[in-house]
Amino acid sequence: MGGQGMKRPIIFCDFDGTITESDNIVAIMRHFNPPGWESLVEGVVTNKISIRDGVGRMFELLPSSSRDEVAKFVFDTANIRAGFPELLSYCERNDVEFLVTSGGIDFFLLPLLEPFPVSKERIFCNASDFSGERIRIVWPHPCDEHCSNDCGMCKTTVIRRYPKEQYLRILIGDSVTDFEGAKLADLVFARSHLITKCEQLGLPYVPYETFHDIVRQLNSMREGE
């Protein structure tokens, strides 16, 4: 036995800039504009500071009292990328496990996913604590001993729980939090910065604009088996 046909497909899907059309963390910072946020974003994008450090410090710039305002801003402005319900129903029909693996934060991410049939235990993201004066980000999914990138929400740690001998590992993403995961995936659907990174690393990828593109590609792969 063996071969791709025997492996169970599993999708690891990013949230910010992937399920949603734009990066919600950057949108929050741009909208509320706390002094100092631009250099933190720049530091994360250029790998000068870790994702965990950068995102933690960005949210510390906001008072805990702004929680509802921030969540409402994301809820009112974030657009879900076209074809997301169709991708979920494709996964349901074809017994494809679907996980959301996100560097986003629970207090705005979970309300946006609420209307969709994704169970909480399949959503991996960062958590938040509003008990102090400033918003504090909590990291329930840290890096394992194989990752030293201080990711915050470590996608490669989650991916490694699904051994490549048993799973066909599919990553859907767009940006810096997806770079390491792309190296482990059997199939990468990429847009934006992730395309640039895959090309730099010589990793094969399939470009997408909407989830309809991804469903089409997955269907044609099934037919070609």
From TrEMBL:
Pathway: Amino-acid biosynthesis; L-methionine biosynthesis via salvage pathway; L-methionine from S-methyl-5-thio-alpha-D-ribose 1-phosphate: step 4/6. It holds the Pfam family HAD. SUPFAM superfamilies: HAD-like. Its EC number is 3.1.3.87. Gene3D superfamilies: 3.90.1470.20, HAD superfamily/HAD-like. GO terms for molecular function: 2-hydroxy-3-keto-5-methylthiopentenyl-1-phosphate phosphatase activity. It catalyses: 2-hydroxy-5-methylsulfanyl-3-oxopent-1-enyl phosphate + H2O = 1,2-dihydroxy-5-(methylsulfanyl)pent-1-en-3-one + phosphate. The keyword Hydrolase applies. One of its GO terms (biological process) is L-methionine salvage from methylthioadenosine. Keywords: Amino-acid biosynthesis, Hydrolase, Methionine biosynthesis. It comes from the Bacteria. InterPro entries: HAD-like_hydrolase_phosphatase, HAD-like_sf, HAD-SF_hydro_IB_MtnX, HAD_hydro_PyrdxlP_Pase-like, HAD_sf. NCBIfam families: DKMTPPase-SF, HAD-SF-IB, PRK09552.1. Belongs to the HAD-like hydrolase superfamily. MtnX family. This is 2-hydroxy-3-keto-5-methylthiopentenyl-1-phosphate phosphatase. It comes from Paenibacillus hemerocallicola.
